[in-house]
Amino acid sequence: MTDTADPIGGIHIVHVDPVERKDSNYIAQIDLAPFGLDGQFEQVWLHDLADGTYALACIPFMAYGLALGDVVRLAADGRVDELVRRCGHRVLRVLLIEDEDATRWAGTVDAAKFCIVSAGLLSEWHGPRFIAVDVPPGAQAGVVFDTMGRIVQDGLGHWEWADALPFTPHPSAV
Fold first, then answer.
1. Domains, the chain, ranges and CATH?
2. Nearest by Cα to 93 from 16, 11, 18, 158
3. Which Pfam families match (predicted)?
4. Phi and psi of 113, rounded to 5°?
5. Mind listing the pLDDT tens digit for each residue in 153-174?
6. For residues 174 and 170, what is the distance between their CA atoms, to the nearest angstrom?
7. Distances (CA, A) of 31 to 62, 69, 74, 78, 155
8. DSSP for 94-126?
C-alpha cells in the first residue's frame, strides 16, 4: 500500500498498478470529502480522449459513482469535477478482515484472488485487504458473488457497490 500524506494536508489513495495503464496516461485527483472522507483524495489514472474528456484507466477504490472506462471532465485544478458518460461497468469493492489464524487468512485471500481470476474479471488491490473488482456489462460473475458472499457471511469481509452513491465533485471543484 502506498498512500501518501500531502505536506499541506490530506491523504492520497494511489493506484500502484492500474488495470489499463498505457505508455501515455494522465493522473488526476478526486476529492473524497463528498463521500465522508474529508482530507482524502484518490489519485486516478486517465486516458486522454482528445476532446477535453478522459476515460478512467483504473478501478476506483474510494470514489463513488465511477467505474473503469467512465468518461470524466477535469476542473482547472486537475481534479475530476464531472462525470460525462458512464460506460456500463460497475465496481464491487471488498474489504477483507485480517484473521488472527494465518492459515484461514491466507485461504480467504487465495479464495478472493481465485474467484476473480476464474471469472475473467479485472481487479486492483489496495494493500493486502482492499479489492476493487471491475464488473463489465454482461460479465459472468456468479463465482465472485458466491465467494465474496461466503467471505462476508463468515465475518471475514465487507462488500459494497461503488455506484451505491452517485459521483459528486467537491463543491469547490465546480
1. 4-87 (no CATH), 90-162 (3.30.70.600)
2. 158
3. DUF4265 (PF14085)
4. -65, -45
5. 999 999 999 999 999 987 765 4
6. 7
7. 10, 19, 12, 11, 31
8. EEEPPPSSHHHHHHHHHHHHHHHHHTT--EEEE
